[in-house]
Design a protein that fits this description.
The protein has 339 residues and is α+β, with helices and mostly antiparallel strands. It is built from 14 helices and eleven strands. It has a seven-stranded antiparallel sheet. The protein has a four-stranded antiparallel sheet with strand order 1-4-2-3, sandwiched between helices.
Length: 339
């Protein structure tokens, strides 16, 4: 979809009720007048390409224009993706089964597609791996992902029949948390999000890292929270912030286990960085990718690569006390970019 089409889609998706909801929340957090906020939101949208969720999530009411100009907003994010990623190669990142095969050397797991494999292939897979992680092959944000144990069924036929009723039909070998990450949250694979950018000379760089942790018993870390990771030390260097950044929830410790977060080293961090830099070069036409990497007892394993990397969770106020967004990092490598 081109930039013009994207803008049309964004505008058509706007709902007055959603705007009012965000405006109410913004007024609550900022303490500012709703009329002033409305006018400032419109002005920010025109000048910086920010949606009203951007305005709330990044705390724009508390930033100067010079500071706002450093943020990768919704529209700026779309322009960066269009400039840096060739849509002809997006399919590998949009299809999780294809991704597992193309990046097989990095994913550390087997997979089988319930809908395309034979029943006997599925049987053989679950005999080797009684517990499977099932997910939609074209899903996102962890929706419909489930951990299923075939031994909970009276027989394989019952298990196979139940799979047919689910939207999650790509079966994978579950990855196991490294003990240091399981200590923080044991119910999900707690992934690092590493963002790579390939420069004009074809060299990959990791430009940002977030350690994610699950919440509330979920088997995925989506809708949990993330902590910024110092790229030099590999240690958590910020409190945790909820996924959308707009709820005002900041975590100094995990609420389930009460493990302190800041200063905690991320296990195998250097190995994970080198892994995603190598993986980025598999499809160099996709220069800007957000990789989710699980750290297992045997080291890092890539869970997925996101060709449209969410622009919000890595510019949250609690993690950017300097009040500077990520656009200057992109401009360092691509100074010709125009917002």
């Amino acid at each position: 979809m081109g930039y013009g089409g994207y803008i049309v889609r964004v505008l058509s998706g706007m709902r007055l009720s959603k705007f009012k909801e965000v405006l109410d929340r913004t007024a609550k957090f900022s303490g500012k007048n709703k009329l002033w906020l409305t006018l400032d939101m419109v002005r920010s949208a025109v000048k910086f390409g920010s949606g009203y969720y951007d305005y709330l999530t990044f705390g724009f009411w508390d930033l100067t224009d010079a500071q706002r100009a450093t943020y990768v907003t919704r529209v700026v994010s779309k322009k960066l993706v269009d400039m840096l990623n060739d849509p002809a190669y997006e399919h590998t990142f949009n299809d999780k089964e294809e991704f597992d095969h193309v990046f097989a050397e990095f994913v550390g797991r087997e997979c089988v597609n319930y809908r395309t494999a034979s029943k006997e292939d599925v049987r053989a897979f679950t005999q080797r791996h009684p517990t499977v992680f099932a997910k939609p092959a074209h899903g996102s944000c962890g929706h419909d992902c489930q951990r299923i144990d075939s031994r909970d069924y009276p027989d394989f036929d019952a298990f196979y029949e139940d799979l047919g009723k689910r939207e999650a039909w790509l079966l994978e070998t579950p990855l196991v948390n490294h003990p240091q990450n399981a200590e923080v949250y044991p119910n999900a694979l707690n992934c690092i999000r590493l963002i790579t950018l390939i420069d004009k000379q074809g060299e990959p760089h990791v430009i940002f890292a977030t350690q994610k942790f699950g919440l509330n018993g979920r088997v995925v870390d989506n809708y949990g929270f993330g902590c910024r990771v110092d790229l030099e030390t590999g240690c958590i260097c910020s409190p945790g912030v909820s996924g959308d950044g707009s709820l005002g929830i900041v975590y100094e410790e995990h609420p389930l286990t009460h493990v302190k977060l800041q200063g905690r080293p991320v296990p195998c961090f250097d190995q994970a960085v080198e892994m995603v830099k190598k993986a980025a070069l598999k499809i160099p036409q996709m220069r800007y990718i957000g990789w989710d990497v699980g750290i297992t007892p045997d080291g890092p394993a890539i869970v997925e690569g996101n060709n449209y990397c969410a622009h919000d969770f890595w510019q949250l106020p609690a993690q950017t006390p300097e009040k500077t967004g990520m656009l200057p990092v992109f401009m360092k490598y691509y100074p010709e970019f125009k917002r």
